[in-house]
Amino acid sequence: MKRTLLGVFSMLLVLVLLAGCGSTANNANPATSSTTTSSDQSGSAGGQKTFKVAYIARAQSDSFAAWLANAVKDEAKKYPNIKLDVFDGQANDDKENSMIENAITSKYDLIIVQPNNGEAQRPYVEKIVKAGIFAITTNARISGIEGASSVDAKPYEQAAVNARAALTQIPKNAKVVVLNGPSGNFHADERRRSWQAEFFDKRPDVKIVGEQIANWNKDEAMKYMEDWVQANDKIDAVISMNDNMAAGALEVVKDNPKYKDMLVYGVDGTAEACLLIKEGRMTSTCLQNAFELAEKLLDTSNKLLTGQAKQIDIDIGNPLITKDNVDQYIDLLKKAGAIQ
Amino acid sequence: MEENIKLRVSQIEKSFPGVKALDKIDFAVKKGSVHVLCGENGAGKSTLMKIINGIYQPDSGQIYIDEKPVKINSPIQARNLGISMIFQELNYIPEMTVEENIFLGNLPVNRFGKVNWKEVRQRTKELLKTENLPYSPTTLLKDLTVSDIQMLEITKAISYKSDIIIMDEPTSAITLKEAEKLFVKIGELKARGVSIIYISHKLDEIFRIADEITVLRDGTVVESHSREELDIETVISLMVGRKLTNTYPKEQIEIGEDLLQVENLNCANVYHDISFHARKGEIVGFAGLVGAGRTEVMRSLFGLDPRDSGTIRVRGKEVNIKNVGQSIENGMVMLSEDRRRYGIVPMRSVEENTTLSHLKKVFYGFRHHRKVEQSIVSDIFKKLKVKTPALDTVIASLSGGNQQKVVLAKWMIRDPDILILDEPTRGIDVGAKFEIYKLMTDLAREGKVIIMVSSELPELIGMCDRIYVMAKGTITGEIAREDFSQELIMKYATGTLTSNGVK
Amino acid sequence: MDLRNNFWSTARKKYSIYMVLVTLFIVCSFVNENFLSVNNLTNISRQLAVTTILAFGETMLIICGMLDLSAGSVLALSGVFAVYTYKMYGSLLAAVLVGILTGVVCNLINVVMISTFKAPPFIATLAMMTMARGVALLFTKGQNILQLGNFVVLGQGSIGIIPIPVVFLIVVAIFTWYILKHTRFGRSLYAVGGNEEASIASGINVHKVKYMAFIINGVLVGLAGVLFMSRVNAGLPNGAINYEFTALTAAIIGGTSFSGGIGTAGGTLAGAFIVGFLDNIMNLTNIDSYVQQIIRGAIIALAVIYDIHSKNRRTKSMLGRIDDRAVEKKPN
């Protein structure tokens, strides 16, 4: 009886595994193992020399990182000479570092690193360069490595475009709440630093009545916002380090007329934020455009691999999305399938 | 004479919620003597010893050592005063070595806290040598027997220079031969002037080693005498507070037709060719040495362990028993030898432990019937004379004998036809033993079948109508009551004799 | 001897957790004037609903000597599937059913590993935790599902002034209380958790008990998943990370013992609200994030120490038998 069960159970497990691998092959979706992706692409290169490129993502479970990884994969299909493998750093410095080491050992021609924490990956990116392999760091860049290229948006700037707009939008003596990303995260810290320097230092009249770490999460942000709404008779603005948390804060007050004119700032330019801006409920966000990043990444890779350049450092734009220009971004996201 | 007193307790009182455990206890232990403390479970022996060892504080009263008043707040303080206790249930860490165990909590360290292992090794070797123990300092405790560990505990006590050693039922888990070794050791200790307080139920051994005997009952000292002034019968009557006319309340009961028939039970490498039967009103004994396979057969029969082949018939009808549930359905229940492992759910109440075997009786009509449960449990407790402060008392806090009665109560509420009792009187006191024998007799009179597995030949001979003897996984002999003798049983049990009548 | 209960000593032992809750409630009311408002109290209940529903599942499992580390991940997976179903078919009922079914299937896999193949619950559910999260991310490609329309009514709507998640919470609380107090299955949970071997030897079908426990847990996790996604108005494959720990915390503070065999529905509810009140008052008074974490940790430590302390008192209480924890050598 038990033996039959064991059989059935292991077969189920195998089925699940196959299903997982199958879908990886179909939509070229992230998976820690990259064997299947490589096998069905290896034949397509023809006579031309193909280059092996490794993309080591910060984490596949972080929605922006996942978007970027998908975009990079789609973009790679446009380059017949490039064979791309994606690895998942699982939001863990240790794992990401060992993946970089593995990629060096596997003799990739080029390695793109999306660091989990720039300083932690720095020595490993240096190792890539030392091994004579091209390196690109992205989102966020690790600057100052001789021989390593980079493609990035600047987290400081992303927050700053919002903060500068907020300088004039937020009324005098306003009460605001701040939602932070996880402490120690590069983007979280940079964005918060930017708001401090570009806004709070210049507007001493504005009072922070609540500031908490909501770990980029919508549900955690909701909880904090609910409590703040109880504790304060008025909140003039929500300053959030990403769009998820901003959307969470808005979810709490969405039916409350008292907060109809509350200003809400985010960063990332997610589909949800664009829709909220379109509805006039969110004030602004800054697009971190994964498509543009992916495009530039592959372009840079191609140039490096084909010998057109030795080192490239470029930035994508930090466009501020407001009610006035949101439509063009919604079109962009529709094209990407993020909005139906 | 008076200056010979090593330890004296005076007017000790101790209460626990709902129970007065000790009431004005007085007793004294002489230097270099063995003082036996006996009494039924729950009489207060363990509590008293825990007070002397500093685990409990008395509510009132005074302890004197060498006639000087002392206050003992912890076992460490007790140790410093020269008192050590060897517990009934030895607590030890199996992965620890002999030397680590001896110096546990007392490791010699230098000024930086570094352990001086060289000294540990040296001193352990010396100790083992003087105590004449054959193991090496690096032996792991898990490789030792219970008796070895007991010796080790005594050695440890000696290493603390204890001159009062308390032993709580030291022979309950060791063999007769090992017990002999222990008695020799006790003699040695006595000769060195160590005073020993010895707690035991086993009256024969008490009379072998005691210099003085104090009997406790219901938290008071009944009497305290030197051994010469007492005999076994008197001690028993002092313990239970009444004269027991007969140690085994065996009655001649008319035996009916076959109720249980077991044929050719087999389980590879465990037992083979087991066939036996039991009739209405019959008490059937299973004798044999440890490891003969008696418990294994019973566990298979009860559906706890699988078996390879064999048929079981209850009331002449073949039954298919694959799990305990089916066994209970057929009116067969089993009291396990290891109460703590298979008998009780320690942190739940006595009430819940009792009804566990028959939840349908208290959960029906989509709810729990608390009143029904209370009355079922109260009734059966009254019948079995279970002593508990309340029905929601946690079972782990009862004495061993009372726990055993609760486990029995659990089965009695099922009103079973066949009771398998595996070592039903192990580790419980004379009074409770007698009550269990009495219950067996009552059940037999009601026409039930009782199968009793026991390692104590006197109780088998005293209680059974028929005895099967097992050796090496099979039945080697069947003896009718008129032929009972210890010699015959032992011959079958050791395999020197195999009866042809039994297959 | 009086076999009935000694009312006061039992009351003190049994109800101490509720006294802590009431005391905390009174203290909070004085500390911040916003605490004691209908709005704030409904808020707290709404915030607690999802994790407390998980906590009831965990309570039953812990009582039975197991636990579920996969609750948060399975919740996300169930929620994402439910959201997807709703977007495909527009039926709230279908969405809820799919959510619950997902929870049950995942938990069936858990219990097959645990009960049939004897994997330790800690490891088995840890594996499920990773797997379920992986499936959720794979299914959504790591992106949030948006524009849920009327799906939000389950998480954000109210009946009168009582938010719908709180209605579910109340129903689940009563259900758990009923199961633990009034069913054979509930009594068996305590027995199996307290001593599995003794339960088998008493004729209890331990397999069945474990399967039932996980299936019920699956229903609760699935339901929690639907409520969670509905409340946040999105299908978040990354949602509810570490919710299992919040749920375990509530159960432990509520007096559920990790050694099995002990715990009540009321205790868990009280435990959840103790944590909820504390979180709420700390946010109302705007206490620093880092300090909040320290306080939360300290509370768990206190609860566990209290649990162990009171357990010791209990075993010592009668006629003196201190014996647990010992590695017992079986008399040969």
Question: What does this 3D model show about the protein?
Answer:
The complex is a heterotrimer of chains A (340), B (503) and C (332). By secondary structure, chain A is of the alpha/beta class. Chain A has helices at residues 2-27, 35-42, 63-76, 93-105, 118-130, 155-169, 186-200, 218-231, 243-253, 271-278, 290-305, 326-336, and strands at 51-57, 82-88, 110-113, 134-138, 149-152, 175-180, 207-213, 237-240, 263-265, 285-286, 313-315, 320-321. Chain A folds into two domains: 49-152 and 290-309, Response regulator (Rossmann fold), CATH 3.40.50; 156-286, Response regulator (Rossmann fold). In chain A, helix 7 (186-200) links the parallel strand 6 (175-180) and strand 7 (207-213). Chain A is built from twelve helices and twelve strands. Mean pLDDT of chain A is 84; it is low at 24-46. In chain A, helix 3 crosses helix 11 (290-305). Chain B contains 17 helices and 22 strands. In chain B, the strands form five sheets. Chain B has a six-stranded mixed β-sheet, sandwiched between helices. The radius of gyration of chain B is 25 Å and the shape is globular. Chain B has helices at residues 45-52, 75-80, 98-102, 117-130, 146-159, 176-191, 203-209, 232-240, 294-302, 324-329, 339-343, 350-355, 370-384, 400-412, 430-445, 457-463, 486-493, and strands at 5-16, 19-30, 34-38, 60-65, 68-70, 83-86, 164-168, 195-199, 212-217, 220-226, 258-267, 271-279, 283-288, 309-314, 317-319, 332-335, 363-364, 367-368, 418-422, 449-453, 466-471, 474-480. Chain B has three domains: 2-240, P-loop containing nucleotide triphosphate hydrolases (Rossmann fold), CATH 3.40.50; 257-331 and 417-428 and 444-503, Rossmann fold (3-Layer(aba) Sandwich); 343-415, no CATH class. Helix content of chain C is 73%, strand content 1%. Chain C has 13 helices and two strands; from the N terminus they run H-H-H-H-H-H-E-E-H-H-H-H-H-H-H. Chain C has helices at 7-31, 38-63, 71-89, 92-116, 121-140, 153-156, 164-182, 184-194, 196-201, 206-232, 243-253, 265-284, 289-316, and strands spanning 158-159, 162-163. Chains B and C meet through helix 1, helix 10, helix 11 and strand 18 of B and helix 8, helix 9 and helix 13 of C.
